[in-house]
Specification:
Radius of gyration: 17 Å
Structural class: mainly alpha
Number of helices: 8
Distance between the termini: 33 Å
Helix content: over 70%
Number of strands: 0
Length: 170
């Protein structure tokens, strides 16, 4: 949702035709770069701490997108920070869910992974619906904030990954 809508958010904030394209580029570049850094971070930090920190940072930066409408540069910077914040979330969940959930509840793996795909398909659409309903794309960016809050609330229930990774398996 964030990476898909930041270009329009920047455009509405007055970005030029060239500048509004920088918002999604900044988001996706830092998300990809951040994913390259996650294994290094996991050498010293516990997985759960990285996950919770990433979710909190993603929520904070996405909330900042709602309030930092003073110009395209602020939106581009917030998009970049949002990309960096969300970088660890998917890989950690992709690794942690099968490891921590499968042994005791293997039947829920399919629905959990389907929910992840459904979220990726539905949330951008819900941002559009919220934008139409409120006449504010900035306010509609609270939809991904709500999704982040739900994930954060589920961490204590579902996540048992308190490991510090000291080596990367082949």
């Amino acid at each position: 949702s964030i990476g898909g809508w930041v270009a329009e958010l920047a455009r509405r904030a007055g970005a030029t035709n060239d500048a509004w394209t920088l918002a999604p580029a900044a988001f996706w570049t830092l998300q990809t770069g951040g994913r390259l850094l996650v294994p290094l971070l996991l050498r010293t930090a516990p997985e759960r701490g990285v996950l919770v920190g990433s979710l909190v940072a993603a929520g904070a930066v996405t909330t900042a997108l709602v309030t930092l409408l003073d110009g395209p540069a602020a939106i581009i910077a917030a998009a970049a920070l949002a990309g960096l914040a969300v970088a660890p979330i998917f890989p950690l969940l992709w690794a942690g869910i099968p490891r921590d959930v499968a042994p005791s509840r293997p039947a829920v793996l399919g629905p959990l992974f389907a929910a992840g795909g459904a979220g990726g398909a539905l949330l951008p659409w819900l941002v559009g619906i919220a934008s139409d309903a409120t006449a504010s794309l900035a306010l509609a960016m609270l939809v991904p904030c709500a999704a982040i809050a739900v994930m954060l609330a589920l961490v204590p229930v579902a996540w048992r990954g308190d490991r510090v990774t000291t080596s990367v398996a082949p």
